[in-house]
Amino acid sequence: MTSATVGDIDSMKARLKSIWTAGDYDRFSRFMVGGAREFYERLNIAPGCRLLDVACGSGQIALMAAKDGVEVTGVDIAGNLVERARTRAQAEGLKARFEEADAEALPFEDASFDIVTTLIGAMFAPRPERVAHELLRVCLPGGTLAMANWTPQGFVGQMFKTVSKFIAPSGMPAPVLWGDEDTVRRRLGHGLSELSLTRRQYLFDYPFPPSEVVEFFRLYYGPTHQAFASLDSEGQAQLRQELETLWASHNRAGAHCTTVSAEFLEVIGIRA
């Protein structure tokens, strides 16, 4: 990435924005509330703290915190998701601020937040070293940095491998490297006085069979939506078959439902 030109980066950013504005991530994320709630509650955030949720999507973590009296700001690269988060906050009468912003260039002063979180979000930015710098920069010394990142070995890491066989690689480092302990230590360790890394399971639970889960992802999850859209009918059929096989082989529910555990790395650090 050090040799990438400005044009390369701009093109990559435009592609990422198109991926995350595609589909309907708000609808998609409603089936992930349970895991998000568990991640949030483990942080034990006190009311009145200033929290920044990076790559906030439609406000999943941010709105939980706002309900608990936390001073919340959420940012995301996808403008449509930022608008959706604002709409949700307004509908629920919650005080929360949402802005369109890039995880690699956060529009805040140094040490602006007591807690900086990102749930399966900032890991997808193309320049991880810049993301690490920004997450650390805006966090108050003694404050908490919390990430949840898919691991290379886990179910979602396997799903990404399946999808990547059908679409050309983007040229950016694999997002799931944020789920590798040594990589996280190298990227963040210098800015933290404490670092805890724990592998946990995120539960995907759908009231429909694996074949319909794949269709759900195709319709509403941006990366899968774009992968299918980039293929001809034969490629789409092959991708669908491989994804259905993957989901079915990991399914712990019956024939008419889908329950799959996906490993992620929980990163909890204290800013030095």
Tell me about this structure.
The model has no long low-confidence stretch (mean pLDDT 95). The protein is built from 11 helices and 7 strands. Strand 1 (50-54), helix 4 and strand 2 (71-76) form a beta-alpha-beta unit. 43% of the residues lie in helices and 24% in strands. Helix 3 (33-42) crosses helix 4 (60-67), helix 7 (155-164) packs antiparallel against helix 11 and helix 9 packs across helix 10 (222-229). A 7-stranded mixed β-sheet has the order 3-2-1-4-5-7-6, with helices on both faces. By secondary structure, the chain is α/β, with parallel strands linked by helices.
What's the total helix number?
Answer: 11
Spatial arrangement of strands, main beta sheet: 3-2-1-4-5-7-6
Mean pLDDT: 95
Radius of gyration: 18 Å
Strand portion? 15-25%
Low-confidence stretches: none
The chain-level structural class is: alpha/beta
Overall form: globular
Overall strand count: 7
* Euclidean distance between termini CA atoms: 27 Å
Measured as a percent range, the helix fraction is 40-55%
Order of helices and strands: HHHEHEHEEHEHHEHHHE
Major beta-sheet overview: 7 strands, mixed
Secondary-structure map:
Elements: H1 6-21, H2 25-29, H3 33-42, E1 50-54, H4 60-67, E2 71-76, H5 79-91, E3 96-100, E4 113-119, H6 128-137, E5 139-150, H7 155-164, H8 181-188, E6 192-206, H9 210-220, H10 222-229, H11 233-250, E7 258-271
Parallel strand pairs: 1-2, 1-4, 2-3, 4-5
Antiparallel strand pairs: 5-7, 6-7
Helix pairs in contact: 1-10, 3-4, 7-11, 9-10, 9-11
